[in-house]
Amino acid sequence: MNKRKPLERIRDAVDVRKLLEVYGAQRIHGSGNIRSTCPIHRGDNPTAFAFNEHTKLYYCHTQCQDGGDVFDFVMKIEDCSFLEAAKKLAEMFNISVDWENEEIDEDYFREEARKFIEQMRKRNKQTKLPPFKFKAKMAKIKEYRGFSPEAIEHWKLRVCLEGELANRVVMPIEDIDKRLVGVTGRRLKNDMPNKWMHRPRNLHTGWVLTGLGRNLEEVRAKNEVIVVEGIFDCVRVWDCGLKHVCTPIGTFFTEEHEQELYKAGVTQLVIGLDNDPAGRNGTRKMIERLKYKFDITVLNLPEGKDPCDCTCEELLEVYNTRLLVHEWYEKYGKEKERL
C-alpha cells in the first residue's frame, strides 16, 4: 500500500516540461532548472521563467515577480482553487487519489515554497510583494467579536460567500502603500479545515506589516506604532482608540518588517505581542533586533492574554503604563522560555 500522501504522489509525478507545454510556455529549454517564457503573464522573455524539475518550484523574474510550487502554478494560471488544481494535476499525470478519504492538506508544501520565494526575492533585491487580485462575492458584517461597526468597516471585514474562502471572515492584507497584496480568511465553523487561510496560498507575511499602510496617518501623527501579534488584535486595539497599530501576523519580525517601519518614518515602537511564552519569546527577539534603532516600550498585558482578549479599559491601562525594555526584562527575563 502506498503510504505517501496524495499531494506528494501528485507533485512527484509532475513532468515540468510537459506541464509547461500544456500551458503554452514558449521556447522551453535547459534541464534541471528549465527556462521558458512565462505562461502566466504571457511574456516573451525566454529566460524570465524558471521551473525546477527536482523541487517542482517555479519563479517568474520579470512581470510576475512571484512563484510557488506546482499547485500554485495551476491555481494561478487556471484561476482555480487549490483542490481543483490538485485534481487537474492528478488527472494530467495519471495519479489515483481517493478524494473523499485521503488527507488533502493545502499547507503541506507551503512553507517550502515560501522559503524559496523569499530567497528569490532577496536575490533579485525585490522590495515589494506583487499586487493581488481577489474576486469573490462578499457580504458585509454587522457584528463580530464585539467589534464596533466603525472598526469592522475600517478593517474591511467581510464574510466571503463563494470559493475557497466561503464561510470565512475575510480581511485584506495591504502594504505600506495600501496596495492589496493578499487576503486572509478566518473560519466561521470549527469543523472547517485550516483555522486561517491566506491567499495567495504562498503569501509570505514576513514582507508586510498588515495595518501599517491603512493606519499610516495616525502612525505618523504620533511618531509611534504598536505592533501586535494577530489581525483581530489589531482590530481590537484600533477599536479602543489606539489607531496607530499593525501586525506581522505572528511572533516573528523580519528585516523586511524593519524596512516597512523605516518607510513609515517612526522612531517609537510599542511591542504588544501576546503575554504567553511564545509571545514573550517573540518580544525578546524583536527587542534584540531593534533595540538600537527605535525607542522601544512593551505592553504588559495580563498573563496569558492577547489584546483581543482584553477589554478597552485593560488595553488603555497597559498602554498608559507600558514598560521600558529594562523594566520588562526585570519582570520576564532575557532568556528564551520553553514552549
Percentage of helical residues?
Answer: 25-40%
Number of strands: 14
Largest sheet: 5 strands, antiparallel
Roughly what is the average pLDDT, rounded to an integer? 93
Strand order of the largest sheet: 5-6-7-8-9
Q: From the alpha carbons, calculate the radius of gyration and give it in angstroms.
A: 22 Å
- Percent strand: 15-25%
The unreliable regions are none
- Please identify the oligomeric state: single chain
The structure class reads: alpha+beta
Report the principal-axis shape: globular
Number of helices: 12
Spell the H/E element sequence: HHEEEEHHHEHEEEEHEHEHEHEHEH
Distance between the terminal alpha carbons, to the nearest Å? 37 Å
Give the helix/strand layout.
Blueprint: H1 6-13, H2 16-22, E1 33-36, E2 49-52, E3 57-60, E4 66-69, H3 70-78, H4 82-92, H5 110-123, E5 138-140, H6 149-154, E6 158-160, E7 168-174, E8 180-187, E9 196-199, H7 216-222, E10 224-228, H8 231-239, E11 245-246, H9 255-264, E12 268-272, H10 277-290, E13 295-298, H11 312-320, E14 323-324, H12 325-332
Parallel strand pairs: 10-11, 10-12, 12-13
Antiparallel strand pairs: 1-2, 2-3, 3-4, 5-6, 6-7, 7-8, 8-9, 13-14
Helix pairs in contact: 3-4
